[in-house]
Amino acid sequence: MSHDTLPHPVKTGAAPAARPDGRRRRHWTQRPNPLAGLGSFVWLVVVIVPIYAMISASLTPQDQALGHNALKPPSSPTWSNYDTVLHNSFFHLLWNTVLAAAAVVVIVLVLCVPLSYVAVRTRGFWSGAAFRLFLLGVAIPAQAVVVPLYLMITKLNLYDSLLAIILPTAAFAMPVAILVLTGTMRDISEEVYEAMALDGASPTRMLFQLVIPMSKGGISTVVIYAALQAWNGFLFPLIFTQSEGPRVLTLGLFNYMSQFGVNIPALLASVVLSGIPIFAVYLVARRALVGGLMGVGGK
């Protein structure tokens, strides 16, 4: 006696529900987000409007600066303010700033790359404690230790020199640099380390042939961050320098201020010229910067 066998139902994934007009419903990630678009537009306005106002005011003649609406184009634009800036020790200030920024970047990379590598590859109480000690520097503002720093700078006979700007700036950039680099280096697979170890690679060889090439995003982020700290630094140059020799761009803004008034158009023209080099660096390395920041949180 034969029994009819019923076929087993085949399980299939649920198809997207069809709309009455025959089109499939789009996934939620594909839906437009008007709130995000509105927020992006507002943020764009917040960023662009001050830049536009600064450029507009820098092209305004000095005798019209106080009565000029910065949101309107100047009625008689002039380049005389930029000419004043360029002939007022601007290139000397720019050279000092470039030297300070380059030195800070070199010091931070030379110290933080090996330290981050040791913190990632070493398992132990002391390595973890040293890593947390470095991160503690993120919570210490420069204003809180400026007096001890001043005493150290004067005792080392570094006062009124570029080193008085470079060394503290590099020290305060190191905690964030170590945080970024350790986050990037932790993304490197353990199997890659083991493969190089089987080939007889030493820790130093792993650092230069594996870790550094695979951490280019984090290193680029650290380079931009350290350069920005030196480029925009104001507190250390103000307190640790006095003469014109080691003066940098941020202190050069005082050239347009006096007890009788402020040359606002020339001051803003100096700000515009000072921001062009670092903005160009950001445009070149912006992808690496974003990739390095994303690596901080891990995969």
Automatic annotation (TrEMBL):
Ranges of residues in domain ABC transmembrane type-1: 94-285
UniProt-recorded name of the protein: Xylobiose transport system permease protein
A family per Pfam: BPD_transp_1
The keyword Transit peptide appears for this protein: no
One of the GO biological process terms: transmembrane transport
Keywords, ordered alphabetically: Cell membrane, Membrane, Transmembrane, Transmembrane helix, Transport
UniProt cross-references to InterPro entries, sorted A to Z: MetI-like, MetI-like_sf
Gene Ontology CC, one term: plasma membrane
Coiled-coil annotated residue ranges, if any: none
Stretches for region Disordered: 1-30
TM regions (residue ranges): 35-55, 93-118, 130-153, 159-181, 260-285
Subcellular location: Cell membrane
Superkingdom: Bacteria
Principal place of residence: membrane
Membrane topology: Multi-pass membrane protein
Protein family per UniProt: Belongs to the binding-protein-dependent transport system permease family.
